[in-house]
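[audit] Reproducing an earlier prediction to check determinism. Same input, same settings, fresh worker. If the tokens differ from the archived copy the diff job will pick it up downstream; this log only records the rerun itself.
[audit] input (425 residues):
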Amino acid sequence: MSAKLACFTVLSLALAAFATPASAQESLGIIANTSPSQPPLHTTQTDTAHGLQALDEGLTTEAIAAFERVLAVDPNNMAVRTELARAYALLGDNAAAARELQTVTTSPHTPSHIKDNLSTYTSILTQSLRGGPRTYRATAQLGVGTDSNINTATNSSYMVLPALAALGPAKLDDSAQAQSSLYSEASANLTVRQPLSPAWAVYAGADASHKQAFTSSSFNQSTLSAETGVQNTSPEGRRLTLGLSARQFWYGNESYSQTYAVTGNWFQPLGVHTALSTYASAAQSHYPDLSAQDADRLTFGTTLHAYYGNLTGFAGVYGGDESAESDLNSHTFLGTTLGAEYLLTPTFSTFTEARYELRDYEGFNPTFLTTRSDHQLDLSFGLAYALSNHFSLRPSIGYRIANSNIPMADYTRWQSLVALRYTRP
């Protein structure tokens, strides 16, 4: 609801609390046949009648002038002051409307039962003037699943190192090979958005997750992240978001990396069914025990969103550069994403996503006598069944194939998960 519409709705309720225009006129002894085009001599009664009729005919500024003349003589006329607030709202001056209504609610000349009602309306109006009330969104999820490659390692048991080819194939240690495991997963997220005006809002959020491997705690993964930012939204739905974020990652129950990022996103509606978002981010990652992986990462991308009935979809491209302390880890990347969600029934939906990424590394690898190049494809498919307004059951399956000319980075991976999700609101 727009601020102007919300303001007008609230003021309509406020006026109803006092009296209808007809009863207000009667109680004030207003002359019914007064015309704004031929105003009589100014009195509080004639000016009030003149203002009411001007409002009915859409002459808002003329009505404001008439009501202000009344209040200059009789500042405690709360019925007329409420009509003045309505006129300001119709003119689009919502701040003035809120100011006048606040005067009505705090005046000792306003009956207490009406004041109680108007206090509620004033609170609603104040929220609408700043873009709406503060909103919260929270999710929590618990699940169990299987992972065919929980340590993201190669599927090979033997490997030939070109620099040591004369020694023949080398057998990999078990820890360097793909290991499967059952796992449990828990995650939670909270986001708060506080409007400052119809156009501006600030937001903050926190996210935590933990993946517990059943085979060995050395494969456990945990994350804790926080973000904050500001949003500007135009009446046409265009939205600019600028944010800051921080993320801590643990692997094997030990601190593994910290990442700090600044992001920007521009959302542009293209029509009734489509919109385009363009984004950029700059991130810095630190690895306390692996300083050669410390890196600065720049990412740019754009995504087309489509909404047709029960079907929503997106398609995007992105790319960027990651500059690490070691050239072996520095690389450029280019990727594409494609996804959709379809609502089959009011309580049952299906979703799918595909992502492909190409990475070209800078440094020459002396062990494998080549410069690394990766191609990675991720596919996922899932179902969502609403058990109630807040709970849903979400089974899903995912597959990754990572092709690399560095055998240690060449692997496949299957993951499945059955999760119970809580969402509010």
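[audit] rerun output stored. Observation attached for the diff report: Confidence is low (pLDDT under 50) at residues 19-37.
[audit] end
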